[in-house]
Task: inverse folding
């Protein structure tokens, strides 16, 4: 179900693939919203209130963005934003620890296929390193990719290009034109476009649909990350 124009035949086939985690390679299953609700309640936002509903709408609209940036937009002070972020990370890690975390169908095979094609694979997230590591632990994914990155590793999270560019620098990739980015949110697409990636593939397995992914700049829209090896193999 690949759509949108493909790069010209002369474009190099990407050697670096930067993959999002939640919603792209890892099933979200509403964990972000549930963890947010716990965090908001800890800061005195009553579940079911108009304030809670408005904040939850913002969380949904900004899926893919660095979580501390989301909380800075929702709370008036840096202290409150940091408290909310810490509470969110604890709540998400607790949910992961109870077994509510799974790879999306075909994700492990896709990562393996990409590496078998000779490509370098980097997993990225908008979560803090502790939460990213908790997910990797739960899935047994340490070592599944060549590198894992969170916003603290790069300086800024999505929609800034920093995670993609940090992946390029740390892996010694020659050019941004040798980079492919895949994610399930508009913020993933913006990050890839701003970094100059040759392929910016949106997947409809997560937060945003094809229309929104295309509007954010997706060069391709796929049903899942499982379609990515075939797409890149044809370039």
Result:
């Amino acid at each position: 179900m690949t759509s949108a124009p493909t790069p010209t035949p002369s474009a190099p086939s990407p050697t670096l693939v930067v993959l999002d985690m939640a919603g792209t390679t890892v099933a979200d299953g509403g964990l972000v919203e549930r963890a947010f609700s716990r965090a908001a309640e800890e800061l005195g936002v009553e579940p079911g209130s108009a304030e809670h509903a408005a904040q939850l709408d913002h969380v949904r609209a900004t899926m893919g963005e660095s979580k501390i940036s989301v909380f800075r937009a929702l709370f008036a002070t840096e202290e409150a934003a940091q408290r909310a972020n810490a509470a969110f990370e604890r709540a998400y890690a607790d949910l992961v620890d109870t077994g509510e975390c799974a790879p999306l169908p075909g994700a492990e095979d896709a990562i393996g296929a990409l590496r078998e094609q000779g490509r370098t694979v980097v997993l990225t997230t908008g979560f803090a390193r502790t939460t990213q590591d908790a997910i990797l632990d739960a899935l047994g994914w340490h070592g599944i990719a060549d590198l894992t990155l969170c916003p603290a590793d790069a300086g800024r999270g999505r929609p800034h290009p920093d995670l993609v560019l940090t992946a390029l620098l740390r892996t010694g990739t020659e050019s941004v034109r040798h980079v492919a980015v895949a994610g399930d949110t508009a913020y993933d697409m913006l990050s890839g476009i701003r970094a100059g990636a040759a392929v910016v593939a949106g997947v409809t397995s997560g937060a945003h649909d094809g229309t929104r992914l295309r509007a954010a700049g997706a060069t391709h829209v796929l049903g899942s990350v499982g379609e990515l090896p075939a797409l890149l193999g044809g370039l």
Q: What stands out?
A: The radius of gyration is 17 Å. The longest strand covers residues 16-20.
